[in-house]
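Workshop exercise sheet. Pairs work together: one partner reads the sequence aloud, the other fills in the structure field after running the prediction. Swap roles for the next sheet.
Pair: D.N. / O.F.
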Amino acid sequence: MNNADIAWMLTSTALVLLMTPALGFFYGGLVRSKNALNTIMMSVVSLGFVGVTWALAGYSLAFADGNAIVGGLSHLGLSGVGLQEEGTIPRVLFMAFQGTFAIITAALVSGAVVERMRFGAYATFLVLWVLFIYAPVTHWVWGGGFLGELGALDFAGGTVVHVNAGAAALVAAAVVGARKDYGRQAILPHNVPFTLLGAALLWFGWFGFNAGSALAANDIAALAFVNTMLAPAGTLVVWTLLDLQRSGKITAVGVATAIVVGLVAVTPAAGFVSPMWALALGAIAAVPSYFALVFRARTRLDDSLDVVAAHGVGGMTGALLTGVFAQQSWNNTADGLLYGNPMQLGIQAVGVLAVLVYSMVGTFVILKAISLVATLRVDAREEGMGLDVTAHGEEAYAGGEGAILIARDHAATPAVIGVPVRSEGGQA
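Structure field:
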C-alpha cells in the first residue's frame, strides 16, 4: 500500500461526502420557503438510508465477483472487506469512497419530485433504487461488467452517476406528477444565496469526486483535478452569454446551474482528456443543457429542479464527448474520434443508451411497486401547507405559513411560537 494514496483517498472520500449536504443547499434554495427543510432533508437522509444499504448489500452487488450484469453476494454485510489491498489503498477505504458516490447519485433524483412526494415513499425508493439500479450499473462500468469489458470510458461517473440519475428523474417526475401550482402560477426560488453556496460547495467537493477517482495521488489525479477546475469555467462563460443574449440579464441561478452542468459534463472525461479539451468540453456542454432546460419549461413535465437537463443531458454530452476528445498520450487508456479511434464514440453511445433504458424502465417498476403499498405523493392540503410542516413538524423560518399547525402539534404557548393560538373557548 501507499501512504500518500491512502491520505488522498481519505481526503477525497470526505470531499465527496460533503457534496450531499451541498446538494441539499443547492436544491433547497430553489424551492419555496415552505418546502426548504424537506428538500434539504431529501438529500441529507440519503446519507443514512443509502449509506446503510451500500454497506449491507450495494457494494457487493456492484463490486463482488459476479457476471456481466451484476456482482455476487460474497461481500454482503462487508464480508471480506477489510484492510487487504485494493490497488494501493485498503479495500474498506475503496468501499467507503464508492459509497459516497451511491449516496449522492440517489439524492440527485430528489430534485425531480420535491414539494410533493411523501417522505416515507421517497426513503423506500432510495433503498430499492440503489440496490436494483445503481449497483448493477456500477458493476457494468467499474465492477467487471459488460460495459467495462466493451471499453466504455467513464472516469468518475458520467453514465454511472449522471445519466443514471437523469433518466430516473425523468421517470420519477412523470410518475409522481406535477405540483398542483405548476403552470398556473410562478414557482420561484426562495433563497438564491443558498443555491450559490450549494454550487460552490459542490465544486469544492467535486475535486474529490473526479481527482479521487484516480484512486491514487498520481499524475492522473492531477489531470482530473485541473480538468475539474477548467470545464465548469468554460460552461459558466458560455451559459452567461446565452442568458445575456436570450434575456438581457445574467442570472445567479443560471450561474449556479452552469457550474453544475460543467462539473457533470467533465466527470466522465476528467482523467481521459487534456486540460484544453476539458475547457472546450465544458463550453460545448452548456448549449444542449441550456436549451433542454428552456424546452422543459414549456412542457407539462414538472422536473422541478431540472435534473434531466443538468445531469441527464449534461452527463450524456460529457460521455459522448469523452469518445471524441480522449487522448491516449494523456490517459494511457484509449484515443477518441479526433485521435484516430472513431469506434470509441460508438462504444460511448452504447453505454449511454444501455444506462438510459435500464434506469428508466427500472425506476418505473420501482415506483409503481411502491405505489401498490404506499401513496407516492402528498394530498392537496399537505402540498398547500408545505412539506416542512406536514412531513417534519418544523419550519425553515420562524413564523411561516405552518406556525399555527406546529403550535397545536407541540402544544406550544403563544410566547414560544410567536403567533396566536386559539383555545377551545375561542379566546386567543
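Discussion prompt: The chain is about 65% helix and 0% strand. What would you look at next?
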